[in-house]
């Protein structure tokens, strides 16, 4: 295993990692949450699955009072949701680094709540660490393994097209949607009309999450982001507070002069 500072990882995580297959421990076994098809395509792309890597953070989410009639971001909650995911991601990356992995594929970010307290949530990052069979520049500029939420099939297709993943990029925005006033309610009873207050609130919140995801990609010097997903969830805060979470994989070409060839269209004589 690589010589890394792993003080942040629990004892049993280190014991599990010690039993996985890596360059210095060929007698170990690999573990993976990839499907059979994904596993075979990742290997065909030139990478060997090493083991499942996990990061976890149980986080206390602070309180922020919202104005009943205002559309506004709850920045305390936005920061909490982002920082908690970052902690989980960094611990998953530590495990991958310890295995000498070049990257992590199929990353999933999950949020779970327990009965210990309504302000507590567990943030989990899970993926499969992989190592390239041949030498290549697959890691990030800071030397850490790349991270990607692409499936095994998409990872294979991305590499074949001449691109490689850099990192999982994300943006979060927790937003309070203003309540409808009584006069507004009376004006809309029985009418077909747009609820502009709600439209603007959700529009603004999504834009903030997307913008922050794009800023992470810019910082990583990526060419673009693929596989973007937009998630919306209240996490138990109530009907008028919702998190908008944008996540995707930042990518770059494998060579500076790379271009994707234009598909050739062949017409039959019967067309």
From TrEMBL:
Belongs to the UPF0145 family. Pfam families: YbjQ_1. This is Heavy metal-binding domain-containing protein. PANTHER family: UPF0145 PROTEIN YBJQ. Gene3D superfamilies: Hypothetical protein apc22750. Chain B.
């Amino acid at each position: 295993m690589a010589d890394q500072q792993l003080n942040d990882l629990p004892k049993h995580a280190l014991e599990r990692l010690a039993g996985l297959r890596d360059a210095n421990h060929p007698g170990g076994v690999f573990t993976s949450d990839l499907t059979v098809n994904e596993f075979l395509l990742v290997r065909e792309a030139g990478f060997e699955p090493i083991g499942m890597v996990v990061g976890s953070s149980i986080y206390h989410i602070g309180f922020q009072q919202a104005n009943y009639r205002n559309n506004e971001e709850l920045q305390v909650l936005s920061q909490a949701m982002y920082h908690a995911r970052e902690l989980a991601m960094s611990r998953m990356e530590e495990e991958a680094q310890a295995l000498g992995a070049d990257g992590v594929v199929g990353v999933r970010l999950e949020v779970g709540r327990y009965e210990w307290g309504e302000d507590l949530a567990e943030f989990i990052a899970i993926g499969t660490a992989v190592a390239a069979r041949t030498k290549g520049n697959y890691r990030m500029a800071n030397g850490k393994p790349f991270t990607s939420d692409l499936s095994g099939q998409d990872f294979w297709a991305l590499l074949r097209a001449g691109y490689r993943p850099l990192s999982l990029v994300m943006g979060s925005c927790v937003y309070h949607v203003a309540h409808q006033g009584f006069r507004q309610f009376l004006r809309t009873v029985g009418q077909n009309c747009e609820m502009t207050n709600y439209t603007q609130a959700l529009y603004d919140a999504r834009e903030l999450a997307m913008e922050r995801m794009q800023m992470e990609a810019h910082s990583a010097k990526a060419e673009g982001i693929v596989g973007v997903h937009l998630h919306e969830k209240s996490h138990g805060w109530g009907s008028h507070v919702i998190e908008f979470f944008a996540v995707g994989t930042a990518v770059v070409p494998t060579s500076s002069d790379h271009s994707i060839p234009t598909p050739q269209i062949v017409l039959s004589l019967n067309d």
